[in-house]
Amino acid sequence: MKKAVLTGAGAVLLLSACGTTDDASGWEQIEEEGVLEVATSGTLYPTSFRDEDSDELTGFEVEVVREAAERLDLDVEFTEMGFDGMLTSIHNGQVDLAVNDIDVNPAREENFLFTDPYKFSYGSMVVREDDLSGIETLEDLEGKRAGGAATTIYMQISEEFGAEGVVYENVTNDVYLRDVERGETDVVLNDFYLQSLAVEALPDIDVTVHPDLFYHPNNQAMIMDLENTELRDQLNEVIAEMMEDGTITELSETFFGGQDVSQEPEVDFADDETFMDEEEDLDELEE
How far is the C-alpha of 103 from the C-alpha of 119, rounded, in Å? Predict the structure, then answer.
């Protein structure tokens, strides 16, 4: 399997709503054409990536979409693009929906529809193994150098706590992790499951997932245009079936190293008043 960028689209920021175009695809058109047009990155292991041996697009959410489409008697055509283009493509009617570890949050729900969530996660930190990069609490992020993509909720969290953001473009996991190891950055904030797998896949790099600091509980789902209520309802029906019959659990365990991300985690989160205040500020920023 190829290495892939660490920054999750679950972290994609809300783009300003630009209105629904006349050619935005509705359920009747999708059903008539028999094709579901889906945007994804193809670079986000393990949710959307190209297999190293076959070069075929696969991943947890890619396969969830394929299974859902099959149950709706639809084919799927994926368009691979950067995170920033996905929401614009939905608004422009270029695609019917996007999947790429995209967080469900109130700000986005004002401008887009989401299916019911099928992945539940939370934030973590990759730090140096020997000293945890000097970070014991969220407040210790102040003055640290935090690597990530500019348009992520995790970069916003780090900067809200006083870290200096170090922005990367479309780079692979090893770049992020080696920079932390060398001290060029101190920390990477991102999704727990994605970061755990990245660290596990690169054991020669002397970093670790911080064992004590977890925050920002969140969930992910398929995202689409506000007008596509019938598409949302059709997808929700088959997602419920897939949750009930164990299909999503099986896919999760396949791609997330035996872990079931379809269940809400039992984790002690950083819940101090400072972090609650920061979460409110982030909601305002996303708008």
Answer: 9
